[in-house]
Design a protein that fits this description.
The complex is a heterodimer. By secondary structure, chain A is an alpha+beta fold. Chain A is built from 3 helices and 5 strands. Chain B has 3 domains: about 5-110, Alpha-Beta Plaits; about 135-290, Sulfite Reductase Hemoprotein, domain 1; about 420-555, 2-Layer Sandwich (Sulfite Reductase Hemoprotein, domain 1), CATH 3.30.413. Helices cover about 40% and strands about 15% of the residues of chain B. The chains are: A alpha+beta, B alpha+beta. The complex binds protoporphyrin IX containing FE and iron/sulfur cluster (SF4).
């Protein structure tokens, strides 16, 4: 599936498009299909997100969203070398899927 | 140390106010990201993988305790309690919020610091020898010349939109501790028949097309030194390629024109500029130089030499000489120009740690030690370590005890544990692979097996992508992270050096996965240990026996 991610304009935090807004939890990401470009343009113009882009992901049996590329996985969780600074997603899902 | 005059302070304060307004307009939606990006970048604010990142300039790596304490405060107040000291002698904060950035810059300005020209296609922070002003082997202190260049290059109206970024290093000894010839311009201050002048190298760099800068002028009289630099920049600014980002660095221009033709054009421009008169008045250099006067060193009778140190601590279990303290003294101190003193390297490379990272508490410890034991002076080293430049040998036990208690006492300068690693895929949005975990695993492995001292000087450098921020081209062993069908993969290279015996490393062959490349590092060090002759460093052995034996061991 295709999901959207970007950084929060004020804080810089990594966020994921949940269909109505931007969430800190990757599991909230929704498949945007053909609408990606339209949502990106609208949300960026509305200053709800910075530098957003679309990326590929899969959804597993338990409903977890897993970005396909390692870069987006690291974004979803935080620096792998500072797990103490993990973003909220990692506290929920653990780290075992990062690489 | 240089202190801002009223012009410097007014410029920096005005910049903070300007940025505050720009950030406000961005947050209010009056500026788009496309409009705002160049503005934030010229103030050192990047957008990285997880957050905004602020890069703060530390001119020629010199700072005092008040500034270091402020860096700690900023880490606590606006970031997450730590910072990353970089190969360009700067510091980066990884979690600065856009809404806080102007406040952070305002705090920095109170201690004469800023983030101006730490990004973008301009002349970046001038780097220098970390032992400048202290090294026994320097001709003069290079920092007054670096400071003059800083003033010349700050807000230089002609050079705010260069074809690409521009990095300058200034040193003043035969030994090169600043990777001088891997800079866009490298300057070595020299003395000929008692007269001080500057030797210029141009067109070096790392990145995807690494090049060693050729010598372009053997001697420029010191009172024409800025004029000559201006001529170098002018030719580049006029003819450097703006059509292709990957060909826009001066190294490509010098390479494509040929050094001889570049030199001819620079000399022509230089002659013209001499007739115009762009050199700052000599009094300015003299004024600057006063700030770098030698500190009031104590008489040698009030200190010890290293032998006396050893006998003084003999029998004290806290200061063992075979390992611990003694090993740190042997490994991490450097000869000083004043008798009874050394420069002491503060390792930011604990085994298994993140190269170059320091917590705010550690920064405060370092600031206090600088104040008490090093005439209030500190340096950031391009090896991502810190340095107390002027420490009395008699004070070394106290200094080391404090460092060790703060987790800063590793005795590993220039060893395989002293790894340079860029932030890589843990932080950087351009990365292909993670560099830090490799550094952690390798340093841990060598520390645990106790082979670090046995292996001796071995500079291992890791970059997470071809931009080469981790200097992998210049590593005795270099590692480059690449993307292999969405998986991290690592290319190994051997034989690079950023020192006076500069060379570019060569790739061994096919890449490895993470475990594979760690095993490969072990393999090449074993080949070295088995092949070395008396006194040979890894690099010397590699140069003598060549790539083949290493390849043979790696790929069979
Ligand atoms: C994390 C954000 C960073 C970004 C986006 C970044 C970006 C880049 C890029 C694009 C280049 C290649 C320039 C070229 O070849 O034209 C480069 C080179 C370089 N960067 Fe970084 N870098 C980052 C962090 C760092 C850090 C943390 C250091 C120090 C540890 C550093 C030091 C250098 C050095 C020394 C070079 C190579 C020298 C040269 O300019 O040829 N950079 N960087
Ligand atoms: S070398 Fe590449 S991965 Fe490493 S910091 Fe530079 S741009 Fe990022």
């Amino acid at each position: 599936m295709k999901i959207l991610t970007g950084n929060d304009l004020r804080s810089g935090a990594v966020t994921w498009w949940n269909g109505t807004g931007w969430s800190l939890f990757v599991d909230d990401a929704v498949d945007v299909g053909e609408e990606a470009e339209e949502i990106l343009a609208r949300e960026e113009a509305a200053r709800r997100v910075n530098a957003p882009y679309a990326c590929q992901a899969t959804i597993d049996a338990a409903g977890h969203v897993r970005p396909a590329h390692i870069k987006d996985r690291v974004r979803a969780l935080g620096p792998t070398v500072r797990r103490d600074l993990a973003v909220p997603t990692a506290q929920k899902t653990g780290w075992d899927w990062v690489i | 140390m240089y202190r801002y005059d009223s012009y410097d302070q007014a410029m920096v304060d005005a910049r903070v106010a300007e940025f505050r307004d720009q950030a406000r307009r961005r947050l209010e939606g009056k500026l788009t990201e496309d409009q705002f990006k160049p503005l934030r970048l010229t103030n050192g604010l990047y957008l990285q993988l997880h957050a905004y990142m602020l890069r703060v300039a530390i001119p020629y790596g010199t700072l005092d305790s008040r500034q270091m304490a402020m860096l700690a405060t900023i880490a606590d107040k606006y970031d997450r309690g730590y910072g990353h000291f970089t190969t360009r002698q700067n510091i980066q904060y990884n979690w600065i919020k856009l809404e806080d950035c102007a406040d952070a810059l305002a705090d920095l300005a109170t201690v004469e610091m800023h983030a101006i020209q730490t990004s973008g296609n301009c002349i970046r922070n001038i780097s220098s020898d970390h032992f400048a002003g202290a090294a026994a082997d320097e001709v003069v202190d290079p920092r007054p010349y670096a400071e003059l260049m800083r003033q010349w290059s700050s807000f230089h109206p002609e050079f705010t939109y260069l074809p690409r970024k521009f990095k300058i290093a200034v040193i003043a000894s035969e030994k090169d501790r600043a990777a001088m010839r891997l800079h866009d311009i490298g300057v070595r201050i020299v003395k000929r028949d008692g007269e001080v002048g500057a030797q210029f190298y141009a067109g070096g760099g790392m990145g995807r097309t690494p090049m060693v800068a050729p010598l372009i002028r053997d001697f420029v009289p010191i009172d024409q030194f800025i004029t000559y630099a201006e001529a170098c920049l002018r030719v580049y600014n006029r003819y450097g390629r703006r059509d292709n980002k990957y060909k826009a660095r001066i190294k490509i221009l010098v390479h494509e024109l040929g050094a001889a033709e570049y030199i001819r054009q620079v000399e022509e421009e230089f002659a013209h500029l001499l007739s115009v008169g762009v050199e700052p008045p000599r009094e300015e250099l003299a004024r600057i130089a006063e700030y770098f006067a030698l500190p009031p060193f104590r008489h040698p009778s009030e200190s010890w030499d290293l032998e006396q140190l050893q006998s003084k601590v003999a029998g004290d279990p806290s200061f063992r000489w075979d390992d611990g303290f003694g090993q740190w003294v042997r490994q991490n101190t450097h000869p000083h120009k004043a008798p009874g003193y050394v420069s002491a390297v503060i390792s930011l490379k604990p085994a298994g740690g993140i190269p170059g990272d320091a917590t705010s508490d550690q920064m405060r410890v370092v600031a206090r030690l600088a104040k008490e034991y090093s005439f209030d002076e500190l340096r950031v080293m391009h090896t991502q370590n810190l340095l107390l430049p002027h420490v009395r040998i008699a004070d070394l036990p106290a200094v080391w005890a404090a460092l060790d208690a703060a987790g800063l006492g590793s005795a590993n300068m220039d060893t395989i544990e002293d790894i340079i690693a860029c932030p890589g895929l843990d932080y950087c949005s351009l990365a292909n692979a993670r560099s830090i975990p490799l550094a952690q695993r390798i340093s841990e492995r060598f520390a645990q097996s106790g082979r670090t001292e046995l292996v001796g000087e071995l500079k291992l450098k890791i970059s997470g992508c071809i931009n080469a921020c981790g200097h992998h081209h210049a590593g005795h062993i270099g590692i480059l992270g690449v993307d292999k069908k969405g998986k991290e993969n690592f290319q190994l290279s051997l034989g690079g050096s950023e020192a006076e015996d500069v060379s570019l490393a060569k790739i061994t062959g096919p890449g490895f996965d993470e475990d594979g490349v760690i095993a490969a590092v072990e393999t090449v060090t074993e080949v070295y240990l088995a092949s070395r002759t008396e006194g040979e460093r890894f690099l010397d052995t590699y140069r003598r026996i060549g790539m083949e034996p290493f390849k043979e061991a790696l790929y069979g």
